[in-house]
Design a protein that fits this description.
Structural class: alpha/beta
Number of helices: 11
Radius of gyration: 21 Å
Strand content: 5-15%
Oligomer: single chain
Largest sheet: 4 strands, parallel
Helix content: 40-55%
């Protein structure tokens, strides 16, 4: 397996402009230096350097409609690709992501089927990012098998600045804050011009304490529609599933008519 040892990630122009002051700051120069030293010494860092700014590159600054905040990248081999909660194609969705999918299906009334993401094991959320969902980890890198190992490098200064830039320069964005860590960022957001939704983290340890049933996905789309924005397609429904739903709905309607007919005629 080859390991990337160069560190020159590119970032989308809108974000580069919004965060220009941060990229020129001394802490960012020091952060880049420390990461380069670790890579050169053979330390494995996730995600790969080219994917560190994936969230920004897949969701341009002026296209952001929703922000989902995570803490730091997955620290297992092949899991992290620069998007919070997401994993690349072919990687088994972690438990928190499985719970996110379950809540989406419950919230939106999508019937569990063979196409359900947590059954097909497709946890790649790039389709969300391309629709305007900024999947942002507060800390953008991590050492392999060492969670929170880069929490003191300075990433949070950059990502806090990103959140504040969105709050100050944009309007009608939905911020989904799941768990205590994400909710500590609430002070960066102007709730008079954005929607802030809070719930426990989707981890198996806390999902039953209020994440399940929070209905954040339908609430997000309701808010976007109210503000003349296209809603997010959280789960793609296959044509076969749509046809099945139509057949079931028609059957239910026919059964209802039959029951009404029987009642009418005794």
């Amino acid at each position: 397996m080859t390991t990337e040892t160069t560190l020159n990630p590119q970032i989308e122009e809108g974000w580069k402009k919004a965060l220009a002051e941060e990229f020129g700051a001394e802490y960012m120069k020091e952060l880049k230096k420390k990461l380069a030293e670790e890579l050169e010494s053979g330390v494995i860092i996730y995600p790969p350097p080219k994917q560190i700014f994936n969230a920004f590159n897949l969701t341009p600054f002026d296209k952001v409609k929703v922000v989902i905040l995570g803490q730091d990248p997955y620290h297992g081999r092949g899991q992290a690709h620069g998007l919070s909660f997401s994993v690349p194609d072919g990687v088994k969705p972690p438990p928190s992501l499985v719970n996110i999918f379950k809540e989406i299906e419950s919230d939106l009334g999508v019937k569990k089927s063979k196409g359900s993401p947590w059954i097909t094991q497709n946890g790649n959320l790039e389709s969300w990012a391309k629709q305007g969902v900024l999947l942002l980890n507060a800390i953008l890198t991590v050492r392999a098998s060492q969670p929170a190992s880069h929490c003191d490098l300075g990433w949070e200064k950059l990502t806090n600045a990103a959140i504040k830039a969105l709050s100050d320069k944009r309007e009608h964005i939905v911020f989904l804050l799941w768990g205590k860590f994400a909710q500590e960022k609430e002070s960066l957001i102007d709730a008079s011009k954005h929607l802030v939704l809070k719930a426990p983290h989707p981890s198996p340890y806390s999902a039953n304490s209020g994440f399940f049933g929070c209905k954040h996905f339908s609430k997000t789309n309701d808010y976007l529609l109210k503000n003349n924005q296209t809603p997010i397609e959280w789960i793609k429904i296959s044509k076969s599933d749509q046809l099945l739903d139509e057949v079931v709905s028609k059957r239910d309607v026919d059964e209802t008519k039959l029951i009404s007919h029987k009642k009418a005629w005794g």
